[in-house]
Amino acid sequence: MNIDKADPASTHHSRLSDGDPWALTVPERSLTLYMQAAQLYGQALAAGTIPGVIPVRKENLPTRNAIRVVSIVLDDPSVCSLDQLLAAAYCKLTAGDIVLVDVPGRVRGERSIGLDRDILSRKLFAAGFDCPFITAGRDVLAAEASRPSLLDSFLTAKARGAAPKRFPGLDATLEPMSDRLVAFARRGALVRPGDRPWLLSVIMPVYNEEPSFREVIERLLKKEIFGFDIEICVIESNSTDGTRHDVMAFAQHPRVRLLFENKPLGKGHAVRNGLKLATGDIILIQDADLEYDLDDYQRLLDPIRKLEVSFVLGSRRPVGKKTWQIREFSGRPGLSNVLNFAHLLFTLLFNAIFRQRLRDPLTMYKVFRRDCIHNIHFECNRFDFDHELVGKLVRNGFSPVEIDSRYRSRSFDEGKKILPFRDPPTWIKACLKHRFSKLYLWPESS
After folding, report:
1. Contact in structure between 184 and 70 (CB atoms under 8 Å)
2. Domain ranges for the chain
3. Cβ atoms within 10 Å of 421's Cβ, excluding its own
4. Which of 49, 179, 390, 421 is least surrounded, with the fewest CB atoms within 10 Å of its CB?
């Protein structure tokens, strides 16, 4: 395929160009504006003016006034043609340059050859591009709901995860056609993922876990997973039981990264700091206790490593197991039943608000590619962060796949930190608020 030229008479074509972009289905002015927006986006990335979690591991990208942009416009995004064009764009560009992709999106109610945001992001990642910014037309956003409902018609485009229409430095508004996807992504400085080991960042918030912390981290340091290097990001929140001393013992370990907070501000706050500390291709959240089985890592990581999915939840409710009793406290069945029933109610609430069919959206084991949360705004500090994180990943186009994980609940006497009267109201608030709250960090008007 000749990627530098396109036949204007063709009804199905692709275009990869440096200068004069042309497309059959997108007006020339609109694509030109997208080219300008892509360059603005690249400049913001290079200058470091986009706040938040930006995957720039091992990169030393210069600040430049001009960012090279190439465009790929497809009317028929067959797997082969798009992958080949992305590979050609990777070779054509240098680290820090931007690729602009315009493809048909998957819509509801008909057999479609189009893509959704999740699939497009996986293709960009596999081709060696990072920091994706994907904007979808309204019909594409509507088709992403795993539980379509008449209630969807009352959701705003922002609630569904629509990208901002206005960009700083660009006078016109940008909105893709209703059935299309437009994406900007940066050419990374690392070797493409298929040609190197991936880095797994295990984020471990730690507060008053002296009985179990050392065993957890020592088991993690011994862990080997084919195809992965592992870094452990520990966020210690000024424990009062001696745990900080145990954490400091690993300060010089080459696979451990430490961050010490001055005071405990909640698990969510610690995990958010961990997201800033982590440098991996994949993020996995791990508590410093032994409720979950560390031997489940391989099963949770495999579908992401194979680029089959982007986001995995380790469900405590196995497929086919109808019982809602995931917690069992020895000698306190009443408390177990109350917490299990509350978990069922909050699962139903989350699924209703975010149009999902999840068995356990609140599990600790959340595993996702780092670029899934690029440019996403987070604010929750306590256990309500679980709702915000999963909800905003869903709004960003990444509905999770659930994989069974083994679980043994610890009791409050053993260190469980949920506050039964303080935390549940914050979970309700988080579900309702973050269906509609600010999603993107950049542009600031989002």
Report:
1. no
2. 14-193, 196-433
3. 6
4. 421
The 3-state DSSP class for residue 292 equals strand
244: nearest Cα among 262, 232, 256: 262
Residue 228 CA to residue 233 CA, distance in Å, equals 16
As given in the structure block, the two tokens for residue 135 are: 């904007």
d(CA 239, CA 353): 36
Q: How far is CA 170 from the centre of its chain?
A: 27
CA dist list (Å): 320 to 276, 323, 324, 404: 37, 9, 11, 11
Q: In 3-state terms, what secondary structure has residue 104?
A: strand
Q: How high is the mean pLDDT of the chain?
A: 84
pLDDT digits (tens, 9 = 90+) for 115-134: 999 999 999 999 999 999 99
CATH no. of 196-433: 3.90.550.10
pLDDT digits (tens, 9 = 90+) for 65-81: 568 899 998 887 665 68
Edge to edge, the sheet with strand 311-315 lists: 256-260, 228-236, 198-206, 282-285, 366-369, 311-315, 401-404
Which of 310, 299, 270, 304 lies closest to 399 in space, CA to CA? 310
Candidates 300, 264, 190; CA nearest to 273 is: 264
pLDDT computed for residue 322 by the predictor: 55
Q: CB neighbours of 353 closer than 8 A, spacing ≥ 6?
A: 391, 431, 432, 435
Buried b (16+ CB within 10 A) or exposed e, 54-79: bbbbeeebeeeeebbbbbbbbbebee
d(CA 288, CA 209): 6
Pick from 277, 302, 143, 300: nearest CA to 227 = 302
What's the first-to-final CA gap in the chain, in angstroms?
39
